[in-house]
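Lab notes, practical 5.
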Amino acid sequence: MKLYMHPVSMTSRPIRLFIAENKIPVEEVTVDLFTGEHMKQPYSDMNPSCMVPMLEDGDLRLTESSAILKYLADKIGSPTYPKDLKQRAKVNEVMDWINTQFYRDWAYNMIYPQIFPNNKRRSDEAQAATVELGQTNAKRWLKVLNDHFIGPNNQYLTGNQVTIADYFGAALVTLGETVRVDFSKYPNVQRWLTNMKKLPNWGKINEVFYGYVESLKGQPLHAI
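Output from the prediction step:
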């Protein structure tokens, strides 16, 4: 198997972590997002969406981080993607929620316009309005994540056992570290992230990401 990825990519990070934690034999191929390699041939021919990650397993090419995690978990028979219908449905639910409700405001309104030039709005007024909308909605979604999905008793997103939803969610939520979000305001979220960061391969897999976070220090970024 081959995984086309970039180590800073929010959607590549959960797959790389899952692969490392489960010692799955996968060859990593870096697609340099910062030079636009993902928009050029030959990668653009393999994945017309021109995004990472993409998993190649024989004649199968699979895009979308959530789908790749589910495929890999099923391929190795991992308990992180439960076979029980209701338990699996809850994992699917929170993964879909994070990928849609949460991440649209968190990333594409609040954070990406601040850290990626190609996501910046055309005027200062539009930029400020977009970030403000993202901040407002992100607070709402973090409260749902904190109070409803995790709550005071769960160690992870769907209970007290780690699932692929945690791999997926932790990578996307820690995007907030780029703009220095204070997670202490959401203690259940903070506790959950602490649990995920205890995974043996968290530090190694996220080393490049945290180097990128360090490079943003000193910039006038707006968090919540």
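Observations recorded by the TA: Residues 1 and 59 are 10 Å apart (CA to CA). The domain at 2-76 is CATH 3.40.30.10 (Glutaredoxin).
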